Amino acid sequence: MPAIRNQIRELRGLREITQQDLADRVGVTRQTVIAMEQDKYSPSLETAFKVALELGVPLEQCFQYDPKGKR
Amino acid sequence: MASLSYREKTLYASLVAEILVYGPYFFLHQQNSVNKVAGMIVAIIVLQVVLQLVIAAFTRNRTTDERDRLIELRGYRAGYLVVASLMVVGLAMLWFHATMGQIHLDNPHVGLHFLSVFFGILVIADITKTATQIVAYRRAL
Fold first, then answer.
1. If residue B18 lies in a helix (H) or strand (E), which one and from where to where?
2. Interface test with chain A among B66, B139, B141, by most A beta carbons within 10 Å
3. pTM here?
4. How many inter-chain contacts (A to B, CB under 8 Å) are there?
5. Would you call A39 helix, strand, or coil by DSSP?
6. In terms of CA atoms, which chain B residue is nearest residue A42?
7. Which of A41, A47, B8, B15 registers the highest number of CB atoms within 10 A of its CB?
8. Average pLDDT taken over every residue of chain B
9. Model pLDDT, residue B12
10. Partners of A65 in beta bridges
11. Whole-number pLDDT of residue B55
12. Please, are residues B64 and B18 in contact by the beta-carbon 8 Å criterion?
């Protein structure tokens, strides 16, 4: 299990936002959104806040930290 | 290719250009010269510019972000480690062979040989940098 997990895919699905839309709003590439959703990339704090803001949820609802997870 | 980002496409193009230009130089048995090295540097620059222009023309979204920059830094770190390691090995071998009297540093052919070797180190480092970046795009960061 990765140290930082997220609910981007689920939250994005609920709001019917495409990966490209979210990427454009946050200012990253679609490939970065895909990597985040697959837990292959932990974004910077700034990007994490932007993602949570665009999805309309608090940061901790979008991203979770597991101290026992792999870095 | 649609699932690749702009940066990934440019990296694959760089790798192709590097293999096309450097491959014949290092793997075909031939007499290398300073002119060939200079010609190759011009060739790689021209080929890179042409390939990057084609990719830029056919890619609508040319955004780069923090992940691209992180991957770029990892590539440069890998390339630097290769340069530093091979330079130490190369200089140690030069010192060893010179001490044993197997080579004479005042011989002009020795200078050309070592120019070729050190140019080869730069090429290996460049290919390592590009390959590391391509792999980093496919693996978890």
1. helix B6-27
2. B66
3. 0.84
4. 45
5. coil
6. B141
7. A41
8. 87
9. 94
10. A4
11. 93
12. no
